[in-house]
């Protein structure tokens, strides 16, 4: 695991960083319904049915609306482009659901909690891998397409944000990206 991944894991183990990430960068109406006072980090280590151990980078559960419904956010930190990221995330989400079922966190009559798969990319090249699993399949015969797995992930490609987009007062994630993208000591002072 690279130093960037370790640094990001440390930073995003802080609730305020995750809150700033979601409120500052994920532009979805439902973000306003999250209850950040009900927020816990969840283990990202699972043993699959064939006894292989898998590690996610980071998972948080957050209260959603007025119920004990949780949104699981998978943070996958990347410094290189991975064309197969959608497949990796599909595997992680499946293992997360298996674990919730095995441990009794989801009862027999419960529904699965929604998941926001979120990739934070800090590499130099621009991310060019598909953010939708459907883009990894060839055109399938009519009728067969509805049986293919479906997944879309939120990509935060740090290099795509310009300074005007990062001018968020008191947003730790915006400040982090501005620091990482700064080219001079003067740029750093402005952060």
Automatic annotation (TrEMBL):
Descriptive protein name:
Putative transposase, YhgA-like
Biological source species: Dethiosulfovibrio salsuginis
Show the Pfam families listed in the entry. Transposase_31
Traced from the root, the source organism's taxonomic lineage reads:
Bacteria, Thermotogati, Synergistota, Synergistia, Synergistales
Q: Where is the Transposase (putative) YhgA-like domain?
A: 8-183
Per the record, the coiled-coil ranges are none
